[in-house]
Amino acid sequence: MRADAARKREQVVSAAGAELVDLAVAARDGEPVRLSLDRVAARAGVGIATLYRHFPTREALLEAVYRHELTRLCDAAPSMAASGSADEALLAWMHRYLDFVDSKRAMGVNLRAMVASGAITQSDTRARLTEAVAHFLQAPIFRTDVQPGDVVAAMAGAVIAADPDQQRAQTERLLVLLVDGLRRRSGSR
Questions:
Q1: What is the pLDDT of residue 164?
Q2: CA quadruple 73, 78, 83, 85: dihedral, nearest 10
Q3: 101-142 pLDDT per residue, tens
Q4: Considering only the top CATH level, what class is 3-182?
Q5: Where are the domains of the chain?
Q6: d(CA 20, CA 51)
């Protein structure tokens, strides 16, 4: 792919991701949401034909956004884990995870269809998140008997279990409890 074409593709993916964040906010306010490809193209500063040249379907664009944002989230883990307090870094990364989850809600039916078709697999997503969490759990302040996959399951569980009326706030509180439970205590491994 030529450099200018790759740049335009990236602009479209970034614009669609930003549009999904806006739609997630609108969905929380009870507004109906649907990703407008015309708005994405305008936000990216490209014509609709350019958008369709790179992404012939809405699903292709949403899949690219999903993969891009998952990669960005997981790629941030090593540098975040290496900076500052390990527990604060993990909690900050978990907040990024919540942002990722929030933006996926706006994908709604399209995301479920991508999972059903196998274009996006829960096992791949879980594996990548587990690998990211492992970077944090290497810090000596955390218990050694905790598996990264268990932390990922607990994060997902917090999202699912939170009261819809206070989804984000309650999930954030649950993640604070999770990180607290991960800290090594005297007498623990």
A1: 82
A2: 80
A3: 888 877 777 788 888 888 888 899 999 999 999 999 999 999
A4: mainly alpha
A5: 3-182
A6: 16
